[in-house]
Amino acid sequence: MNDPDILKINEGIARKFRKIEEDLAVCRTAVELFESLLTGIGGEFAIPFVWLSVIRRPEAAGLLKDLEESKILRDRLNLIDEEAFLAVVPKASPPLLANGDLRPFFRLLPVNRKYFIRSLAVSPLTLHGRPIGSLNHGDASPDRYQPGMDTTLLSRLAGKVSEHLSRLLPPEQESIAGKEG
Fold first, then answer.
1. For the domain that residue 175 is a member of, what is the CATH number?
2. What is the number of alpha carbons within 13 Å of residue 160 lying toward its C-beta?
3. Model-level pTM?
4. What is the rounded CA–CA span in Å between residue 118 and residue 142?
5. Structural domains in the chain (count)
6. Residue 21 confidence (pLDDT) above 70
7. Which of 2, 76, 178, 180 is spaced 20 to 30 Å from 169 by Cα?
8. In 29-147, beta strands by DSSP E
9. For residues 126 and 158, what is the distance between their CA atoms, to the nearest angstrom?
10. DSSP 93
11. Which domain holds residue 146?
12. Residues 48, 139: contact at Cβ < 8 Å?
């Protein structure tokens, strides 16, 4: 492949990320945001396994309840203790790409769903600057995600999701998100 081909491919990838970001910008609830994110990223990039890991905290109980009630999200949601999450995804971590030994990442997988993955991308998400979980992509190909690949667009998407989530759930409403309906 020559430089014009690579440039064309990269432009196509960036265009897909922009489309997802535009779709997220109109979401009016946290559930809608995450449903749009998972279906958008899976569809645009033909990613076979896309799911969320969300840190289990008392102040996020309403949000977690809403996410668990979503038909789209309930089987693609992993609730995880903060200590276990931070052991895999350190605070302020950029997106992580892994293949090979994925055992440390198994705790991020949904318990009710089996995924055959040989590579994965983990994009940390925050709520008001505090880790809340991650957007996870998995693939059966060990070559799909490899350490050393550029994660700029994944990082930007995670930042946009985190910003939008923080707008949707002001600090005083995190614990009552379940009352949004």
1. 3.30.450.40
2. 20
3. 0.90
4. 5
5. 1
6. yes
7. 76
8. 49-55, 77-80, 96-99, 119-127, 130-139
9. 8
10. P
11. 3-179
12. yes
